[in-house]
Design brief:
heterodimer; A: mainly alpha; MetI-like fold; 2 domains; B: mainly alpha; 11 helices
Chain lengths: 346, 269
């Protein structure tokens, strides 16, 4: 959090108290406004990065046309016009930014279709995939962490820890291929290896082809999440208030559920947000692997075809989602931490 | 050092990593066939025990040849990311004030883009990237993440007496960052390096898997998964062999990173 940047020993204590003490809600709103401003600035900077990476690193027209570049000068000229390449880069950036903000995403450089139309379906499909994974990952990770916390030091705790640690480093597409080999091709043949969805249909109409993509992402996230939750729970269980509750004769299960768990809520929110943010990038490889019709697969295709308008729109969308997820997590963390909430007033 | 050898995580991770590194480095010496040698019909059991790939090349030989590119790219990228990120993070922690604010705010911008996304963004403009571009891409996307960690581990030290006395003695700022703060950060930064190496291997393999290799057609564990993945049904070993090796490699480096991480946590107490 931004306030943590102030080095220890900054003379804040001696500051005279404000004439009117603002209410907690007002302080929180002020904080939220500041964070919103920062989020907007971040996205502006990201847009500059995206623009530079896609238009300054070489000639986009050459990249889009490939071999056709040399043979059809008309096509080159036409494309330069569509991409506004005759303008100054600064002017081009501003035009692009204004278009982006007013919802004009332009047309695909490859097939001339409106970008908004192209990405609409994939965005929904990806959002659905991320949503399912998010709904599954929190209870799964929390359940594992709770089992481990209740059986600390036992073989069960150690086994789960070992498996989690081993899985936590393996790249998601590697897990995915292994799952395909296990459940679709080499060992069992239970589940479809790739998502086959007829055009015009959405992913949720074919639940069976969603099982492996969801399982891959869950296996990529849950081990990491469970490890951190397990560490947080363990720390809280050793705390003085948990010990006091035990001494008062409260049964251990109740100590964990009523005294320990609520205190791990804020770190849980933070680490869940981090994993959700990771998920936004993680879907790219998994969607490509399973041919799942989402933004990841579309992004890889567009990168291969140098379809810059689509690449730019998708990147900005993912970055915006990341910023929003983090903002919500920070806002919730403050709301659920009484100390931070009241600390804002002082 | 002796206690390191007693941690089972570090021992098992070290053995796994060492085995895979040896396989990658010495593999070409033991390959029964050439890297591009066609030994039979595509996707059959011909050739060595792992069969043939999409062009009829020997899968086992290509597994032995295909580690060097992944290993070298991942190690160089990790070194680049950890050195630049580490220096930036420690500098931010030590300098404080506006410099820290600028460095960490810029960091936040880069953090808003997932690593694979930045990579794809650049690859959309640069087709068939040179090997050094991949090193640079993977390495630079590590920088903001490493910088954040490095700043965090350096922060408790910058206000300690030994730093203040070094300042009083008139040591230069560069010397304080490297010679005074540096040694205290070795274990946590080694843990971070292990983690970054794990992610580098994953990223480099993923770039090959997405089909954006610098040397199309060359043996490379990531690229092999992409070339042969459509034949998972008929000739699974052409894909499973490189995939299993990548899995074992990342498990190994991650175990080391975790072992070092728990030591760093103990040291900080």
């Amino acid at each position: 959090m931004s306030t943590a940047y102030a080095p220890a020993g900054t003379p804040t204590a001696g500051r005279p108290t404000a004439r009117r003490r603002p209410s907690a809600t007002r302080a929180w709103l002020q904080w939220l406004l500041r964070r919103l401003g920062l989020a907007v600035l971040t996205l502006l900077a990201v847009s500059l990065l995206v623009f530079l990476a896609t238009s300054a690193l070489g000639d986009p027209v050459r990249a889009i046309l490939g071999r056709d570049y040399a043979v059809s000068p008309e096509r080159v000229e036409q494309l330069r016009q569509t991409l506004h390449l005759d303008q100054h880069p600064v002017q081009r950036y501003l035009t692009w930014l204004v278009d982006l903000l007013t919802g004009h995403l332009g047309v695909s450089a490859v097939n001339g279709l409106p970008v908004a139309e192209l990405i609409g379906g994939p965005v929904l499909n990806s959002a659905f995939l991320v949503l399912i994974v998010a709904v599954l990952m929190i209870p799964l990770a929390l359940g594992l962490a709770l089992i481990q916390a209740r059986t600390r030091g036992s073989w069960l705790d150690n086994t789960i820890s070992g498996i989690n640690l081993a899985l936590a480093g393996v790249p998601e597409f590697v897990t995915g291929i292994l799952l395909v080999a296990l459940f679709s091709t080499s060992v069992f043949r239970l589940l479809p290896a790739v998502t086959v969805i007829p055009p015009g249909q959405m992913a949720w109409n074919r639940p069976s082809s969603m099982i492996l993509p969801v399982a891959t992402l869950v296996l990529a996230i849950v081990p990491y999440l469970a490890r951190i939750l397990r560490a947080n729970l363990g720390e809280a269980m050793d705390s003085d208030y948990a010990e006091l509750a035990r001494l008062k004769g409260i049964p251990e299960n109740r100590v964990v559920l009523r005294h320990v768990l609520p205190n791990t809520l804020v770190p849980t929110i933070q680490v869940t947000a981090l994993q959700l943010a990771w998920l936004l990038g993680g879907v790219v490889l998994v969607e490509y692997l399973f041919n799942y019709p989402g933004i990841g697969a579309l992004l890889v295709d567009s990168v291969r075809n140098s379809d810059f308008p689509v690449v730019q729109a998708l990147t900005m969308l993912i970055a915006a989602a990341y910023v929003v997820v983090n903002l919500i997590a920070d806002a919730l963390s403050i709301l659920f931490t009484p100390r931070a909430r009241t600390g804002m007033v002082a | 050092m002796r206690t390191l050898a007693r941690d089972p995580k570090i021992v098992i991770g070290g053995i796994l990593t060492l085995l895979i590194v040896l396989l990658a480095v010495l593999g070409p010496l033991f390959a029964p066939h050439g890297e591009y040698e066609v030994v039979g019909r595509p996707f059959t059991g011909e050739g060595s025990f792992l069969g043939t790939d999409y062009l009829g090349q020997d899968v086992w030989s290509r597994v032995l040849y295909g580690g060097q590119s992944v290993l070298i790219t991942a190690v160089l990228a990790t070194a680049l990311g950890v050195v630049i990120g580490g220096l930036l993070g420690v500098t931010a922690a030590y300098a404080g004030g506006w410099l820290e604010e600028i460095l960490m705010r810029t960091n936040d911008v880069f953090l808003a883009l997932p690593q694979i996304l930045v990579t794809l963004l650049v690859l959309s403009a640069v087709h068939e990237p040179a090997a050094w571009i991949i090193v640079l891409l993977v390495g630079l996307t590590h920088v903001p993440r490493v910088a954040r960690v490095a700043r965090g581990v350096a922060l408790p030290y910058v206000t300690q007496d030994f730093v203040l006395s070094a300042e009083a003695l008139g040591e230069s700022r560069a010397r304080i960052v490297i010679a005074e703060l540096g040694p205290n950060l070795v274990v946590p930064m080694l843990a971070e390096t292990g983690l970054r190496l794990t992610y580098s291997i994953g990223m480099v393999a993923a770039i090959g898997f997405l089909g954006f290799s610098s040397d199309v057609g060359a043996a490379d564990w990531g690229q092999m998964t992409n070339e042969n993945r459509l034949a998972l049904l008929v000739q699974p070993w052409a894909v499973l062999a490189p995939v299993l090796i990548i899995a074992l490699f990342t498990i190994g480096t991650n175990l080391i990173a975790d072992g070092l991480g728990s030591r760093a946590a103990k040291g900080a107490e």
